[in-house]
Amino acid sequence: MHDWIVIGGGITGISLSYELQKSGFSVLLIEQHQQLQGGSSLGYGGISYWSGTTTVTQQLCQEGIARQRNLSHELGMDTEFREIDLLLTLTPEDDRQVILSQYKDCAIAPTFLNPQESVEREPQLNKQGIGGALLFPHAHINLPSFVKAHSQAFQKLGGETVYAKVKHLLTDGDRLSGVSTEQGEFRSAHVAVCAGAMSRILLKASGVNSRIYYTHAEAIDTEPVDLELRAMVMPADNKRNVLEGSTADADSDAIWDVFGRELLPPSIDAGAVQYNDRSIRFGQLSRVLTDPHAAIDAAQSEAAIRAEIAKVLPQLAELKGKWRNCLVAFSSDNLPLVGSVKEYDNLHLFSGFTSPTVYVPALSQRFAAHAQGKADDIIPLLSPQRFDTKLRNGYAIS
Question: Which SUPFAM superfamilies match (predicted)?
Answer without folding.
Answer: FAD/NAD(P)-binding domain
